[in-house]
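Q: Sequence in, structure out?
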Amino acid sequence: MPEGHPERPDRIRAVEQVMEAEAFQTLLREQAPMVDLQEIAAAHPQEYIDALQDAAPSEGMVRIDADTAMSAGTWEAVMRGVGAAVYAVDEVMTGKVKNAFCAMRPPGHHAEKTRAMGFCLFNNAAIAAMHARAKHGAERVAVIDFDVHHGNGTQDIFWDQKDLFYGSTHQMPLFPGTGATDETGVGNIFNAPLHPGDDGVAFRDAMDVRILPALEKHRPDLIIISAGFDAHERDPLANINLTEDDFAWVTRRLMDIADKQCDGRVVSVLEGGYDLMGLSLGVAAHVRALMGS
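A: Exactly. Output:
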């Protein structure tokens, strides 16, 4: 992204740095593989994939929209980002690991079927869900999104797929302008908008009242988390006042449901989080919860 853009390389450096703590030294770490383009085609039309690949520059920078750009390293980054999500699904669905966290950028949940936007090019979580169905026979897959921005892309891709569940808490009004409670797809979309200034009490209530009961009713074979940490009270792009304790709480709640319904299978993919301290604190709390601590 251009100089000064919030979606910057320091985000991954901050995650890598916090993961150097002693508490995380027992974790298995893998370099994300490049994804097969056929995996992406499960969620995005081939024409869209080809257009983005053709737009990727060998030098300099290309603007996709006002917020989203591609540089010489972007294509490999997005191929490894999607590759991380797909590989994590393989590892979790085959029982090699219980759960996984994918630290990647750019994020993905704003990428609609045929439109890149909001820093996102391909929808990592949606592609992972499609892969779980196609390769591992997961009939019902759920994506839970606690990024402060609504995942309009995931909603768009899941809209008419009754076996794919999407549940989101997000600030409203805020970019991208979607995510009202009456946006329900075919009964598989559950939005729980938060108001500017809301804190962990409102967030936990939204999860407990609207999102988690619907998730339990869906009986997922796999839970994918769109883990955005820009609802942290320190984040400059929004006005929700969550703390790292809230991220740990929701992670544990999702793990409890996964333990009851799908043998603990959880894959988490990094979305937003633009204050580096808030991102670090949120990721650390999230991963500790995934570890069961």
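The chain has a mean pLDDT of 97.
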